[in-house]
Amino acid sequence: MNKKKNFLTGFAFFLASLLLFIAVFNILIPKSDQELTKKDFLAQKTKSFRYVAIGDSLTEGIGDTTNQGGFVPILSQSLTDAYHYQVTHDNYGVSGNTSNQILTRMKDKQDIQNSLAKADMMTLTVGGNDVMAVIRKHLTKLSVATFKKPAKSYQERLRQIIELARSENEDLPIYILGIYNPFYLNFPEMTEMQEIINDWNDATESVTKEYHHVYFVPINDQLYKGIDGQEGIVSTSGDQTTVINDALFSGDHFHPNNIGYQIMSDVTMEKINETKNEWNKD
């Protein structure tokens, strides 16, 4: 009987001690709110991000055989992968547009203005058709000097594009892609063409340096020499020899192909990674 009494007393003491320990433990270490922690975690991992792409055929994605929009959706996915953004993108690329036509569309199209007002980032492809316009106008007497005056006018329109894009969104970061040289394939006699392209890109870059959070993205070196950096790749079929560039669309040897657009996205993403902390502190 005493053994049973001692057992019950000991068990009661053990049970009281256990309850006391649990009570003290709960006081010293409060129970975490698992639902709140999950919400906080998700909030840190996802953020809506609106990306607006404006420009010419490179933004529209001519040469992209998937018909998904060239480098724009690729860059959107890269932003998602790198920064866990929930990216939505608006593509306002129109093939053949010069800087003047892009500027006019931005002034006239309310949907573009609305998108820019809410945008977190913008890319711009511009300049290639301005160069082509000079080539067509002065085809028989082209020289480096021929492009000097048109480049000055282009710079002024570029400033207007930047300022219009920021009229309702003054801190909008803008990445302006340079132009590249596919002309040696189509106009091999124009031996000064690379100097002309370099000068034009310098004109674009000089404008970007006038503004905070406007960046120049050079793509010429990555595209005009082909995927493996071999300028003027020679393709031989029977008796016919053709100079090609395997980063360009075989349908016109002018616009990027799918790999070319991937290259454009990669180069743009590199620039974003280098500069993002300047305009986004998240």
Q: How many individual β-strands?
A: 7
- Main sheet: strand order: 2-1-3-4-5
Number of helical regions: 12
Helix content: 40-55%
Q: What is the chain-wise order of helices and strands?
A: HHEHHEHHEHHEHHEHEEH
> Low-confidence stretches at least 5 residues in length (pLDDT < 50)?
none
Radius of gyration, Cα only, in angstroms? 29 Å
The global form is: globular
How many strands, what sense, and barrel or not for the largest sheet? 5 strands, parallel
Percentage of residues in strands: 5-15%
Cα distance spanning the termini: 71 Å
Mean pLDDT reading: 84
Structural class: alpha/beta
Task: Pick out its properties.
about 280 residues, two-stranded antiparallel sheet, globular
Question: Can I get a quick summary?
Answer:
Keywords: Membrane, Transmembrane, Transmembrane helix. This protein has 282 residues and is an alpha/beta fold.
What does this structure look like?
With 282 residues, the chain is α/β, with parallel strands linked by helices. 53% of the residues lie in helices and 15% in strands. The strands form two sheets. A five-stranded parallel sheet has the order 2-1-3-4-5, with helices on both faces. Helix 4 packs across helix 12 (258-279) and helix 8 (148-165) runs parallel beside helix 10 (193-208). It is globular, with a radius of gyration of 29 Å. This is GDSL family lipase. The chain crosses the membrane at residues 7-29.
